[in-house]
Design a protein that fits this description.
The protein is α+β, with helices and mostly antiparallel strands. It has twelve helices and four strands, in the order αβααββαβαααααααα.
């Protein structure tokens, strides 16, 4: 049963070093108090802290009984990123409360064998649920989330920026089951399209929301090259993607996505297209990134 202990008593319980395990509802201030015991840990990763904070304030955080671990001297051994995520909300969301399992009194050397297992990803969870190609679907969902929520250009220091967490991705897929079927439709072409299938899947799903029949035709032409001619937007796209693969050119998700959108827009408008033009300075931003029509 969960209990609520005053911060001073909670900290004293941790510092005592006595072997114990208990659940506790923590506030950002509680997390800040416990982080005073974070004196022997690996370097913190800003992006993970931001992802955790975003999950905590978006009702996506789920209690999984993964403990915060302290040794016999009251030193935090495991859980710094979770605590930092919660503590970072002290000013913006002070009302946030998160339940944790806390384990104390561990051997001081036990930290050396922590976090040695393989972390379960959103793709793994899809596979467990019986959905094939879970990793491809999860990757496509992350691309779609960042794109549709205009987070492709955010600084990594902002909450949720630059990456969608496993929890966010899984919850989003539960709320958008049609996306799984859309991406599954692109996977039969994974060896026929010279672009990451996750990006193609995200683009195809967005295009289908605009015009399903046109999206199906666009994808088929992109994969097969059938019925194309010089100046056809899809042929120009195929040639550009093939050159990227052939020359092993480092190409960002934003570039791949922009090329797909520009070809789609030209195809929809019935326009010829012979090359792709990046913005001035070759830097994409929120204001110049193409939007599908």
């Amino acid at each position: 049963m969960s209990t609520t202990i005053a911060p001073s008593a909670l900290l004293a319980r941790v510092i005592s070093g006595r072997p114990d395990a208990f659940e506790e509802i923590l506030t950002p201030s509680d997390a800040e108090d416990l982080l005073t015991r974070n004196t022997s840990n690996r370097g913190a990763r800003t992006q993970i802290i931001a992802q955790y904070a975003n999950d905590m304030t978006s009702a996506r955080w789920r209690y999984a009984a993964e403990p915060l671990k302290f040794d016999t001297e009251g030193v935090l051994l495991d859980g710094q990123h979770r605590l930092m995520g919660l503590a970072s909300l002290k000013e913006s969301h002070p009302e946030t409360v998160i339940k944790f399992l806390i384990v104390t009194g561990l051997d001081t050397k036990s930290q050396t064998v922590m976090d040695q297992g393989s972390r379960r990803t959103a793709g793994d969870n899809l596979g467990i649920a019986g959905i094939k190609n879970g990793h491809n679907i999860a990757s496509a969902a992350r691309t779609f989330i960042l794109w549709s929520e205009n987070r492709l250009f955010q600084s990594n220091t902002l909450a949720g920026a630059g990456k969608a967490s496993n929890t966010e991705t899984q919850v989003w897929l539960e709320e958008h089951p049609w996306f799984i079927e859309d991406v599954q439709s692109t996977l039969k072409y994974r060896n026929s399209v010279d672009a990451p299938i996750s990006i193609v899947g995200a683009a195809y799903s967005r295009f289908r929301s605009i015009d399903a029949e046109a999206a199906d035709e666009f994808l088929t032409m992109l994969a097969t090259g059938a019925n194309l001619y010089e100046g056809h937007p899809v042929l120009t796209l195929r040639e550009r993607l093939a050159r990227i693969r052939r020359e092993r050119t480092k190409t960002s998700t934003r570039d791949h996505l922009a090329f797909l959108i520009m070809a789609w827009n030209a195809y929809r408008a019935g326009n010829s297209m012979y090359k792709f033009q990046r913005p001035k300075g070759s830097v994409w931003s929120k204001t110049n990134f193409p939007q599908p029509v």
